[in-house]
Amino acid sequence: MVKVAIFMGSISDEEKMRPCSQVLDDLGVEHVFTVTSAHRTPERTARLVAELEEKGCQVFICAAGMAAHLAGAVAAKTAKPVIGVPLSASALGGMDALLSTVMMPPGFPVGTVALDSAGARNAAWLAAQILALSDTGLAGRIAKAREGFVASVEKAAASLEQKK
């Protein structure tokens, strides 16, 4: 059953968003990874939201640059959580996408994470944490991954401290 949908506004966003899909794969979260545009294919976007909700999708992750209306367009079509990943795709360095993604009207929130691939990873982690509220197996996998993060920092610190 599809639990998360990852939408990108353009195929050129794939490199920045691939880490999102990888984190979900690593955590064992079934997801869809596709392209749809708030402006060029609004009907496709609306259709995908409806179809994926019917298939059990619980969280939508939307990445776009420039005007970055994709997350807002999806939020207008669902009451499920929407996470926006602003992408740096213009001369404004992503500030335009950040503001477009974060500034939503009351009642249609978009949880917004960092720009580009760092945001893509955190969007996946946040989606997984939302799903883990009702999935103890996933909660355990998240906890185990975090233990790995702790161990890697401890190992790096020990290595550095030995070089003094």
Keywords:
single chain; alpha/beta; 6 helices; 52% helix
3D structure, described in words:
Helix 1 runs parallel beside helix 5 and helix 5 crosses helix 6. This protein is α/β, with parallel strands linked by helices and 164 residues long. Strand 3, helix 3 and strand 4 form a beta-alpha-beta unit. The mean pLDDT is 97. It is globular and about 60 Å long. A five-stranded parallel beta sheet has the order 2-1-3-4-5, sandwiched between helices. Helices cover 52% and strands 15% of the residues. It is built from six helices and five strands. It has a single domain, classed as Rossmann fold.
Secondary structure: helix percent: 40-55%
The largest pleated sheet is described as:
5 strands, parallel
Task: Please give the count of helices.
Answer: 6
Mean pLDDT: 97
Strand order of the largest sheet: 2-1-3-4-5
Q: CATH topology, which one?
A: Rossmann fold
Q: Radius of gyration from the CA trace? A: 17 Å
Total count of strands: 5
Q: Output the CATH class name.
A: Alpha Beta
> What structural category do the secondary elements indicate?
alpha/beta
- Using the 3D structure, state the CATH architecture: 3-Layer(aba) Sandwich
Distance between the termini: 52 Å
Order of helices and strands: EHEHEHEHEHH
Using the alpha-carbon principal axes, give the shape. globular
- Low-pLDDT runs: none
Q: Which percent range describes the beta-strand content?
A: 15-25%
- Please give the domain count: 1
